[in-house]
Amino acid sequence: MESRLLRLIEPTTQLDSRRKVFSNASLMRMIVPLFFEQLLTMLAYPLSDEIIHLVIVLVLIHNLFNAAAFPASGALPNGLRAVGDVRYTMYVAIISTIVIRFVLSVILGIWMDLGVIGIAAAMCCDWMVRAVLFLHRFRSGKWKECSVIR
Fold this sequence. Notes:
The protein has 150 residues and is mostly helical. The chain is elongated, with a radius of gyration of 20 Å.
């Protein structure tokens, strides 16, 4: 009886600890950039206010989208590759890098004159498109048809 109870309690404890780790990491991603200005100004070489502002904005953009989209666009394809779904993940990675990241970087960064902020936005768009495609692949179950050894 006691072992059944422990088995019922243990999964929720593991899940709660995973949630705590994720929420702590996300919290740190949001808090650390608040102190970047002080860290950057303490460096031995002088930085202009524009550069300090740009670094803070880039770190915030990266951290927000990294926490939101990268688990599904970075970790999930690793799992899909591990079960043998290599072609799909490779095609999505190559096509999204060329079509989304590169093309949007040129459009946003150069043509719309957003500079490095436009390139960061293009990278985030790439992560979001990959996340949607990989989540769709995972939920469709087509990855179950793949095998590592034939």
